[in-house]
Amino acid sequence: MIKQHFSNSMKNNEPSTFSLEKARLGVLGGSGLYSIDSIEEVKEIHLDTPYGKPSDALRIGKLGKMEVVFLARHGRNHTIQPTDIPYQANIWALRSLGVRWILSPSAVGSLQEQIRPLDMVIPDQFIDRTHQRPLTFFSEGVVAHVTMADPFCPILSKVLAEEAEKIIPEGRQIHRGGTYLAMEGPAFSTRAESELYRSWGCSVIGMTNHTEARLAREAEIAYASLSMATDYDCWNQNHENVTVEMVIENLKANAFIGKKIVAATALKIDQLRPRSAAHSALKSGLLTNKDIVPDLTREKIDIFTSPYWGLFSKS
User: Fold this and answer.
1) Which one from 231, 291, 295, 302 is the annotated catalytic residue?
2) Is the model's pTM score more than 0.85?
């Protein structure tokens, strides 16, 4: 087990000379997916970040030749509810370890008849209904605006979908595209809420991906979601209302296949090393003059801004 303070982590990372040839893949495991057994040569790193401690130790290993950093967003024993996930610390920690692509296998409820429980969706849009989440690294004297028109990386999502379609069992389906409704949680929706989201054309409902995707974009990390349906939320009265028991049973089935899809996608990413628009998201997004940004703020965001502002050092 290795422990690192955030300043040491920053010294080991050189964003200004970064190459995708050396980049790592991050995997944010959701409900039911707390590890990936096929990762080899695993070592655990406990990081302190400017935003606190991540959800758990970061497990670094290999899927084939691809270096992977796995993090259980709820903790490996599922002790952190969606609102309380340290989103900023998680994304900062992954970027500090050289992650430039993130796969997010996550449990969701289906909002459409054609997306059946145990189907999987590769969403391409969000609607945000959360209200207690940190949505940016850029505050406390600095402002940045990044584009979120296409919040999931289209290139990474395509690779994920192609690999998923090769693996998913007969009778289950991969749905390419769709809108992910992000709710605060931790309770499931009321029937009225569920019907409202359906009327908006939403495909699935979950509690975590939106916050991660926004912060990942600011961190210049490509992000894609493998949204694994466990239930029909509560709108479909031809099916029983969502229960914890139902969710857990389907979580286990989804996690088994989800791990295989992530492993296959990792091998493909290692071959392609795909460049994403997300990898330069801050290039035209930084609005504040660097010379007036407070030192404490500048130090916290240096890992993201150094390619454009140069490495920060206190005068």
Assistant:
1) 231
2) yes
